[in-house]
Amino acid sequence: MYSGRHSTGKGVEMSIGTKLFTMLNGVQVGTDSQGNKYYREKRPQQRAKERRWVVYHGKVEASLVPPAWHSWLHHTTEDVPSDDAVKQWHWQTEHVPNLTGTPNAYRPPGHLLKGGERDAATGDYEPWQPY
Asked: How far is 89 from 8, CA to CA, in rounded Å?
């Protein structure tokens, strides 16, 4: 049975509709550091805003879009991000996608998957007592 999806060879599937729409209606405006490609309409229609979209390189995950490209996709800025514009300050870290549900997700002390052992209570906790 045909699923209507096209494999990109990396275990990722893109719908044929997205591939055709992008080929016929899109012009690539840039690529980010993770290999995601960004597109806008070739022939903008008579509407308030042009269509903009991303074709992911690898896993289709919205949190993989860096902040500068996110602002362009959502029309916060009209300027297409360039490598120069995506300058990082010394206090900034590299963009990390959402890791929830993965083995690398944050687990606080006492989490069952971290052994379930918490530090002993310090005695400064007072439970609420109704009158």
From this structure: 35
